[in-house]
Write a structure and sequence with these properties.
Shape: globular
Number of domains: 1
Helix content: 40-55%
Strand content: 15-25%
Radius of gyration: 19 Å
Strand order of the largest sheet: 1-9-8-2-5-3-4
Low-confidence stretches: none
């Protein structure tokens, strides 16, 4: 059963929202630039971000040091530069996904493993489509919605104009949008055979979480994929999305090992995080290294 598209809220226009509206307007204009120009500008903006965002640069550099100890300093620095270039291109990908045309991006698209979604759907089951926080997240979500009716979970924004932009932008392609607090609505959607895009790979401030390995280090990780699968009976499929060197995109789906969910929330969470690590190793520059993934450690302390 495909739900109705998410409602488009009325835009908030109070004076305190005007600076945010300026940024939204610039993003909408940027979405209309030619794709080749966006990619070139994105790399330049990424280089500027690397110089200006000192704290985020240091977090990303530390994450790369923790996760790729086999690389020497020069190789990690090159990867850091490519990461910020990917972040800059991602700004334009976000803009295009919400406000522009993705027709140029469809021309060189590769989609692999759709049968892993279609099989459970044909049996009347919902599917949790698990990914991670990559710079290609938004545009590849829109590309995947050409093939299957994905809904999503998201963190509501405190700034009302940005909340409007998120909901309006994703209403163009998402089957539904669920605030992360709406567990009941999410489970109902899955029980009705719906699809849910979900990214459980950031260190949570609240919710059930356990420490499981990520790049060989303990990472504080939500057990939500396990919990949602148990409550809804949904299948779980991993979803990798990456930008290729030729400018095209590859979307790849594969099922988690059965049985899933098991009775062990920690083991199931480790399976999911191993899948996300696999994605990050396949496209290391495109993973969101500016997030403090290891900020909580067993026994306290932080590597940052």
């Amino acid at each position: 059963m495909t739900p109705a598209p998410p409602a488009r809220p009325r835009p908030p226009l109070a004076p305190r929202t005007w600076p945010t509206w300026l940024g939204i307007g610039l993003m909408a204009l940027a979405a209309r630039l030619p794709w080749a120009l966006q990619r070139a500008l994105g790399r330049g903006i990424g280089g500027l971000m690397r110089r200006v965002l000192g704290s985020r640069r240091r977090i990303a550099a530390r994450n790369l040091e923790l996760c790729f100890p086999e690389l020497d300093a020069a190789a990690r620095d090159a990867l850091l530069r490519e990461h910020f270039a990917a972040l800059g291109i991602g700004v334009f990908e976000f803009a295009r996904a919400w406000w522009g045309s993705i027709a140029p991006l469809r021309r060189n698209l590769v989609v692999e493993g759709l049968e892993h979604i279609e099989g459970p759907r044909a049996a009347g089951r919902g599917v949790i489509v698990v990914s991670g926080h990559f710079t290609t997240l938004e545009v590849c979500g829109r590309l995947m919605c050409d093939y299957v009716p994905l809904a999503g979970m998201y963190r509501p924004h405190a700034q009302p104009a940005m909340e409007w932009a998120v909901r309006r932008g994703r209403a163009r392609y998402a089957a539904a949008m669920f605030p992360k607090q709406d567990v009941r609505g999410t489970v109902r959607h899955l029980k009705r055979g719906g699809l849910l895009w979900y990214a459980p790979d950031q260190d949570p401030s609240r919710g059930d979480a356990v420490y499981v390995p990520f790049f060989g280090r303990p990472a504080h990780s939500l057990t939500s994929t396990h919990q949602l699968a148990r409550m809804s009976g949904a299948a779980v499929v991993m979803y990798q999305h990456r930008r290729r060197d030729d400018g095209g995109y590859t979307l790849t789906l594969w099922p988690v090992p059965e049985p899933y969910p098991s009775d062990d929330a920690s083991a199931d969470t480790a399976v999911v995080m191993a899948g996300i690590e696999r994605m990050a190793r396949a496209a290391p520059a495109q993973y969101l290294w500016i997030h403090r993934r290891f900020k909580r450690q067993p026994g306290g302390g932080s590597p940052y």
